[in-house]
């Protein structure tokens, strides 16, 4: 038995493996295009949130997942601030089937990254002298299921 076959056999015996190797901010930006005038208006913010994830395979069992959040806050039809953050993580994942791997990278890993991203965004917002912005928790499993249903409906429409 070759070394690769032994490694594969030992992974199958051990079952699925998952570990977080590193969590980090890959990119961030904060803009307040209407400061200081925006501070003179009564604070009644409208919060917009856009999310996206991207996965990069780094090695056999190493994956980088990047959760991108764009938060736009408007007050009286003027942009109070815009925050863009790429919260990333490196995950070691082995012993999963294709569907399990896709779900892990598309829902489980982003749910691990989100609290870090939420804290980083809140920190930038408060340092810019705006009231704290605690983004509501996100159900990544539900978003993943919705995305898979849309993808399946799109494929059926093409046939």
Automatic annotation (TrEMBL):
GO MF, one example: unfolded protein binding
Per its UniProt record, what InterPro entries does this chain match? SecB, SecB-like_sf
GO biological process: one example: protein tetramerization
Q: Where are the transmembrane segments?
A: none
Keyword hit for Protein transport: yes
Q: Where in the cell is it found?
A: Cytoplasm
**GO terms under cellular component:** cytoplasm
**Domain of life here?**
Bacteria
Q: Which UniProt keywords apply?
A: Chaperone, Cytoplasm, Protein transport, Translocation, Transport
Family of this protein: Belongs to the SecB family.
Q: Which PANTHER family match?
A: PROTEIN-EXPORT PROTEIN SECB, PTHR36918
UniProt function note? One of the proteins required for the normal export of preproteins out of the cell cytoplasm. It is a molecular chaperone that binds to a subset of precursor proteins, maintaining them in a translocation-competent state. It also specifically binds to its receptor SecA.
Q: How does it assemble?
A: Homotetramer, a dimer of dimers. One homotetramer interacts with 1 SecA dimer.
Q: Which HAMAP family match?
A: SecB
Name this polypeptide is given: Protein-export protein SecB
Q: Which organism is it from?
A: Neptuniibacter caesariensis
Q: Which gene encodes it?
A: secB
